[in-house]
Specification:
- There is one protein chain.
- By secondary structure, this protein is an alpha+beta fold.
- 53% of the residues lie in helices and 10% in strands.
- The protein has one domain (5-198): Glutaredoxin.
- The chain has helices at 15-31, 43-48, 60-76, 92-100, 107-119, 128-137, 142-149, 152-167, 189-198, and strands at residues 5-10, 34-39, 175-178, 181-184.
- A four-stranded mixed sheet has the order 2-1-3-4, with helices on both faces.
- The longest helix is centred in the first third of the chain and has 17 residues, at 15-31.
- The N and C termini lie close together (12 Å).
Length: 199
């Protein structure tokens, strides 16, 4: 049986992942494509390339342009946007929660709410109280899910998932895999989904 699907790799600290996260489910549903959510931490990948943080921070002119581009892209897609006062934000806790629940029916909504905290409300996301509010609002057992995310198994799984991403050639987020084919950047979301339809 044909199962068109796409792997969506993202970091909650990535503003371009915000663009993709708020659009991917509707676009995938239109095409009959299943989304496999794959949270990761870009920090180790950047450090392996010799950068201490986002490569945008290495080029001040490009960094300034990024914020202009993000405002344009959000306006184009009618998405709310506020430039965060801190960039990049630590995304460890929500990444662990998302990883432990990648296949949950609420994963897309959870991820969207976390991204909105960062890039609409300019609030911390690596924060137990913030995640408690997000999970409570979704009617989920916040205490249990947060405790689960702190388990050694989940911590190790996130490390391994980020390592796997690097081994597969991922170098930034958002990234999309259709089989072994890598698509990078929010502007390639539709291309990746269309490719998934052809598999």
């Amino acid at each position: 049986m044909n199962d068109p699907h796409i792997e969506y790799w993202f970091d909650f600290a990535s503003p371009y992942s915000y663009l993709s996260t708020l659009r991917i489910e509707a676009l995938a549903r239109e095409r009959g494509v299943r989304v496999a959510w794959r949270p990761l931490l870009l920090g180790p990948i950047f450090r392996s390339a010799g950068w201490e943080s986002s490569p945008f921070l290495q080029q001040p002119v490009k960094f300034a342009w990024m914020w202009t581009d993000l405002a344009r892209q959000c306006a184009r897609h009618a998405l709310p946007w506020r430039k965060p006062s801190q960039f990049p934000r630590n995304s460890l806790l929500p990444a662990r929660i998302a990883l432990a629940n990648e296949d949950a029916p609420w994963i897309a909504t959870f991820c969207a709410r976390v991204f909105e905290l960062n890039f609409v409300h300019d609030e911390e996301i690596n924060d137990v109280e913030a995640m408690q509010r997000v999970l409570d609002a979704l009617g989920l057992p916040a205490g249990d899910l947060i405790a689960q995310s702190q388990s050694p198994d989940v911590k190790q799984a996130l490390r391994e998932q980020s390592e796997q991403a690097a081994q597969r050639g991922l170098f930034g987020a958002p990234s999309f895999f259709v089989g072994d084919a890598l698509y990078w950047g929010s502007e390639q979301l539709e291309d990746a989904l269309d490719a998934a339809c052809r598999t």
